[in-house]
């Protein structure tokens, strides 16, 4: 297969061609032959987008598959232009050792989905590293089940066994949250100082235990300087930001939508949202990761935290480009290259992130001239709703190639 169009890398945008054999890119150039598929100049061809923070809710217990499973999550991902995802471990049966991790891998295999799914292993009180190389996630505050810590000192003791591992942190200080638990609103019960305190502690742990650390779903302006300083000191620390913390803030919360707008960490002040956009633009934040949390509307009405975002990933990226002034080259960095670098150690022989020979032939094509209005009836997530319903994004997903095979963006 020979594909032609405007190819985007972190360095440049060029009109070029990509030759694919099987599931691999074998050649990239300008005059490789007569193209089988040519995209117009309104379209941009990226190495396939990766979302390294989702909650598919699928595990051996099947306890939460009423709201999502790997099959429906994969359909939503394809609809959103996402070619690989990394699924978090806070299941009712969490993958915390070799046996439970292998059991969840088997669930993925049984689903036979077209996208690649990387699984995080969980770190909880007293857990130990797996025998194989995997990414880990630690919840510093309350989460589903018991996979979290009530005291940061307990986390320090546990992390000593994970020296040198890749560990992602949910940064909320559980002890500070306890002090605010009687506050009247969700946002006040998880105030900014909880995230800043946990950020400081996570950075200490990254340095103390020689971790490759990642801070999840960052939301607070006051913590950005801590991340920037840690990077300047040479620590291996990166950070995510979500679509909701870039698009919404506390001013968007009303009496009628409060339940839909609840997540952890919560929406912040306007200045925090603007600071997240600035930090992503300057490179202090490294990944656009959705924290896709496909809770049903009934669960949201009961106060469950989280929002679904896989269906809308690509359309949201066009908002960053056309409305927020992000260059396509920068988008290639935080949507393609860095997510690929995160998962590639765990997904051989697949290799994601760049349009170069030897990489997996998975591509995301955005159309910057075809707006998309988000409609509930067009979503593929099983939970069946989006916080962006009614929003018209300035562009949309034109096409998606998964391991050398075209997929319909309508799944």
SSE map:
Layout: E1 2-8, E2 13-21, E3 24-29, E4 37-38, E5 43-47, E6 49-54, H1 70-79, E7 82-87, H2 98-111, E8 116-119, E9 121-123, E10 136-139, H3 152-159, E11 166-170, H4 174-179, H5 186-189, H6 192-208, E12 212-215, H7 221-232, E13 237-241, H8 243-247, H9 270-282, E14 287-288, H10 297-301, H11 313-322, H12 328-343, E15 363-367, E16 372-373, E17 392-393, E18 396-402, E19 405-407
Parallel strand pairs: 1-4, 6-7, 7-8, 9-10, 10-11, 11-12, 12-13, 13-14
Antiparallel strand pairs: 1-2, 2-3, 5-15, 15-18, 16-17, 18-19
What does this structure look like?
The chain is α/β, with parallel strands linked by helices and 411 residues long. Helices cover 29% and strands 21% of the residues. It has a six-stranded parallel beta sheet. A four-stranded mixed beta sheet has the order 3-2-1-4. The longest helix has 17 residues, at 192-208.
Report the major sheet.
Answer: 6 strands, parallel
What does the average pLDDT come to?
96
General shape = globular
Rg is 20 Å
Helical segment tally?
12
Bin the strand percentage. 15-25%
Q: Please provide the count of β strands.
A: 19
In short:
The protein is an alpha/beta fold and 411 residues long. Helices cover 29% and strands 21% of the residues. A 6-stranded parallel beta sheet has the order 9-10-11-12-13-14. Strands 3-2-1-4 form a 4-stranded mixed beta sheet.
